[in-house]
Each structure stands twice: as C-alpha cells, then as structure tokens.
Specification:
Helix content: over 70%
Oligomer: single chain
Strand content: under 5%
Shape: rod-shaped
Number of helices: 2
Structural class: mainly alpha
Length: about 150
C-alpha cells in the first residue's frame, strides 16, 4: 500500500473520530442540561415540600410529597449517572482522537522523510552525472592536448 493512500486513510480515520467526539459532546451537553433541569425541579419540589410541612401538612399528604421529592432526587441521580457515563465515553474518544492524530503525524513524518531521501538521492545522482560529464570533458580535453602535442612534435 502506498504511503499517500495510508496517510489519507489515517486522516479519514481521524476525521471520523473527531466527528464521533463532537456527537458525544453534543449528547453530553444535552444530558447536562437535562440534569440541571431535573436538579432545579427537585430543588423546587424540596422548597415546596418544606414549605407545606411548615404550614402543617397532614401525615398522608406529607408522605406523598416526600415520595415525590425522593422521586425527583432519584431522577437527578440518574441524570448525573448518564452525564458521568458520557464523560467517560468522551474521555475514551479523546484518547482515541489523540492516538489517531499521533498516527497521522507519524505517517506524515514518514512521508516527509521519504520525500527528503528521494530528493537527496536525486541530487546525488544529478551531481554524479555532472561530475561524470565534467570528468569526461576534462578527459577529452587532456586527450586532445596530448594529441595536439604529438602532432606538434612530429
């Protein structure tokens, strides 16, 4: 497999993880908003319950209000657990994104190193060709001078 194709694959994988992370973040924000709304409702229920208790609420009515209050508190706990689960999911996805970024950067560095090696090899080849050409001209000039000297001696 060519390095360019592998690098494109790594970029695509990183983009997919980034998209999944954004979706998790959106779900996390929604869950946090739900939790906050449930907390406000539970707080309001507690204030109303305490106010009614202070006003002399009957025992049966107080027990029912207490159950309502406990139900609200349980909803808050459930919402908090959902937020905590999403936070863990987000943290795992962020670690996955970091790994994907690291893989992509390593691939880019490998491509860059290979490109530099190819350029260096091409420069050495060109230099060798120029040296061979220069040496060939020099050798031809030396032979021509030697031949000219021989002819002038004769």
């Amino acid at each position: 497999m060519r390095l360019d194709a592998l690098c494109r694959y790594r970029v695509q994988a990183e983009d997919e993880v980034r998209l999944e992370l954004a979706q998790i973040e959106a779900r996390l924000q929604a869950a946090a908003a739900v939790r906050a709304a449930r907390q406000r409702a539970a707080d309001q229920e507690a204030v109303r319950y305490l106010g009614e208790i202070g006003a002399g609420l009957g025992a049966i009515e107080a027990a029912l209000r207490h159950q309502d209050w406990e139900a609200r508190a349980y909803e808050v706990l459930q919402a908090g657990a959902a937020v905590a689960a999403l936070v863990q999911e987000r943290d795992a996805k962020q670690a996955e994104l970091s790994a994907a970024r690291r893989d992509r950067k390593q691939m880019e560095m490998l491509i860059q190193r290979r490109t530099q090696e190819r350029q260096a090899l091409r420069r050495r080849r060109e230099q060798r060709e120029m040296d061979d050409f220069a040496n060939g001209r020099w050798a031809m000039a030396v032979r021509r001078d030697a031949r000219d000297r021989e002819e002038s001696v004769q």
